[in-house]
Design a protein that fits this description.
The chain is built from seven helices and seven strands; from the N terminus they run αααβαβαββαβαββ. The chain has about 200 residues and is an alpha/beta fold. It has one domain (about 5-199): Rossmann fold. The structure holds S-adenosylmethionine.
Amino acid sequence: MTAKDTESGWEAFYRANQDRAVSPLLRRALGPELLPRGNGHAIDLGCGAGIETSLLLNAHWNVLAIDKEPEAIRRVEALVAKSTSGTLLTLVSRFEDLDELPPAALVHAGLSLPFCASANFPSFWASIVTALEPGGVFVGHLFGDRHDWAGHPEMSFHGREDVDALCKGLEVELLREIEGDGGHVPHHWHRFDFIVRKR
Ligand SMILES: C[S@@+](CC[C@H](N)C(=O)[O-])C[C@H]1O[C@@H](n2cnc3c(N)ncnc32)[C@H](O)[C@@H]1O
């Protein structure tokens, strides 16, 4: 995947990732000590082909899966038709067009928040924090400011201090900064993985 691919379509990404394992970061957040179920509702932002949405449903969460790509939602619905326990709601929408999110005990955003336009990121992050119930958990990734694609006008990149500012007032369960070279299409990547809890 390159920044250019994301402009021309996500289908290749969904195909390349369809057999991958579930996000270890989400698995960690779902661990029994970390995550009380609260209202039982989870939101999967930028759900892609639905691997994590499916995990959540099978773990008996009611999930709202959101993605700007109708093809992603089509894939999610096809995937979860086979085996679901929780209830699935889907929404085709850009993050930038969402006014608010419904209350949730868990918000997951796997490799998707960096694709929110930087001008919209602060208000979108605020709506995520507002949606979390007290004790609720956000789990996801951000791209760092040394990522190869940094500066792309329709994306968001964060330095360590920016991430610390986003986490202010939240309990940080995990904050990991990783950086390296590689990937399906080789590039330099710089990423933050984080799990935070609303007090
Ligand atoms: C890198 S993929 C990650 C998909 C999935 N979460 C995963 O980990 O496999 C990013 C996803 O975010 C979606 N996306 C990108 N920009 C978006 C935006 N501005 N609003 C909503 N969804 C967006 C894409 O359609 C894509 O499905």
